[in-house]
Amino acid sequence: ELKPSVTYDPFEPIWRGGIGAVASLVGTVVSHPLDVIRTRLTLQSAGKGKQMYRGIWDAARTIFAQEGYRGLCRGLQPACLSVVPEVFAQLVIYDVSVHYAKVLYGVEPSAPLFAMCGVLAGCASQVAVYPLDLVRRRMQQQGRQCVPTLREALVEVVRAGGPSALFNGVGPACARVGAAIGIAMVVRDTVLGRLSPEAVGQ
């Protein structure tokens, strides 16, 4: 019978998740203007009529000229509010589920274990923050016509389609994020050498 490792710290998943969440927050703030540009270019490619942007740099210049720096930060508030709990939940759920699958049920470290726990963590965290992610995308798309606050954006979505509208598209989003996190965790833990019985409790 496998016993919990004496070196296992039950608070370790929490501080790991906290560090990951802070790192993701910094990355989100720095890269958010590129996310806005990507969203606008994607919508332009999918739509019809006049093409407003000729590329990344042209989109950046045009958005800045027409909307100011705030235009490049559309949706930053919901992005920051969603990325912190999402990444924190992903890392905590993953670490805890991997540890107790090994300790309580005797599941040996393996790529399938890491993948399943990664999918679980990715799907659970995505469902928890999906309404904020939905609002972020809408705020980025609307540009200067965007509602000014996060609260008003949420109210607008609910008014238009009811509470269930906050989760429109959550299924494909979970499939995408779950697969991405599952693969990422398999690669991470393989590189860290956790595919071995000796890694139990780490």
Number of contiguous helices: 6
Q: Structural class of the helices, strands and pairings?
A: mainly alpha
How much beta, percentage-wise? under 5%
Order of helices and strands: HHHHHH
- Low-confidence segments, given as residue ranges, are 1-6
Write down the Rg.
20 Å
Number of strands: 0
Determine the fraction of residues in helical runs and give it as a percent range: over 70%
How far the N terminus sits from the C terminus, by CA atoms, comes to 17 Å
pLDDT averaged residue by residue: 85
Q: Sketch the major β-sheet.
A: none
The 3D shape can be described as: elongated
Tags for this entry?
single chain, 202 residues, mainly alpha, 6 helices, disordered N terminus
Explain how this protein is built:
The protein is mostly helical. The protein has helices at residues 12-46, 56-67, 76-105, 111-142, 150-161, 170-191. Helix 3 runs antiparallel to helix 4 (111-142). The relative contact order is 0.14.
Short summary of the structure?
The chain is mainly alpha-helical.
What's the helix and strand layout?
Layout: H1 12-46, H2 56-67, H3 76-105, H4 111-142, H5 150-161, H6 170-191
Helix pairs in contact: 1-2, 1-3, 3-4, 4-5, 4-6
